[in-house]
Structure to design on (276 residues):
């Protein structure tokens, strides 16, 4: 069933477009119901033509919508807040009877408490989607502010379900969730690049090595998930006594790969907490 609300989008970068396009393509959101705001006239013209939606440098129409997706850079949040306050009366009038306008933030490290302080009068949702949402294979963690009823929650879940799996989480868990799912693709990309470099050093052409590394990671993830295997089980499945895998694993343990990845996730978690 299509969304009945007008949706404002403040900031129209890659992640906002990744969330919008599946809804538009599936007919769950009418293009005529979207009001987007960006910083430059050139971007407004280009994105309006590209997406077939209303895009303006004037943020007022976006903030007047009963549902707003906030997708600017975290350091820009203070700058966009005044326009939200100015448009609050219109947003309240457009919201469901007796309810508050809904603000969905995808800004990393910006807490619900800060959102509710900067955007009073709006029910706030904090969302942490990850980059695989670009190919509809994402993970999104959601935490709910005060005043977000179950009907609104289901509406938000439906938005993010179009680009992957959705999980409700207590807000303190969003930091390690972000470290694992949002920073994790960069960590895995580094592993894939390094494995391909090793294959090139062993004699494979680079394009083939890259292709094989990507396919190996994708196939391994599909096997782990499809058969609900613990990673240790899969490791044991492919490790024969005194074989090639055992030799490679021994070298990884010597180099501290396991510890390095644990510390990488913990460092990203701590940095997310510092940004908050």
């Amino acid at each position: 069933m299509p969304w009945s609300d007008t949706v404002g989008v403040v900031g129209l970068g890659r992640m906002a477009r990744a969330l919008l396009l599946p809804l538009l393509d599936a007919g769950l959101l009418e293009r005529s119901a979207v009001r987007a705001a960006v910083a430059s006239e050139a971007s407004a013209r280009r994105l309006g033509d590209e997406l077939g939606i209303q895009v303006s440098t004037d943020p007022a129409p976006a903030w007047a919508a009963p549902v707003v997706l906030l997708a600017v850079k975290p350091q820009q949040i203070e700058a966009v807040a005044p326009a939200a306050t100015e448009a609050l009366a219109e947003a309240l009038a457009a919201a469901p009877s007796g309810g508050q306008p809904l603000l969905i933030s995808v800004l990393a490290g910006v807490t619900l408490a800060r959102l509710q302080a900067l955007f009073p009068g709006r029910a706030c949702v904090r969302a942490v989607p990850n980059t695989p949402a670009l190919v509809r294979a994402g993970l999104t963690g959601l935490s709910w502010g005060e005043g977000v009823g179950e009907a609104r929650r289901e509406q938000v879940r439906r938005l993010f379900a179009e680009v992957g799996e959705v999980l409700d989480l207590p807000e303190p868990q969003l930091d390690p969730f972000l470290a694992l799912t949002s920073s994790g693709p960069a960590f895995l990309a580094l592993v894939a690049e390094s494995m391909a470099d090793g294959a090139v050093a062993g004699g494979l052409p680079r394009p083939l090595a890259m292709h094989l590394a990507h396919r190996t990671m994708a196939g391994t993830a599909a096997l782990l998930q499809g058969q609900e295997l613990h990673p240790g089980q899969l490791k044991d499945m492919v490790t024969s006594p005194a074989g090639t895998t055992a030799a490679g694993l021994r070298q990884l343990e010597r180099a501290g790969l396991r510890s390095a990845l644990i510390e990488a996730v913990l460092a990203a978690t701590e940095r997310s907490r510092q940004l908050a």
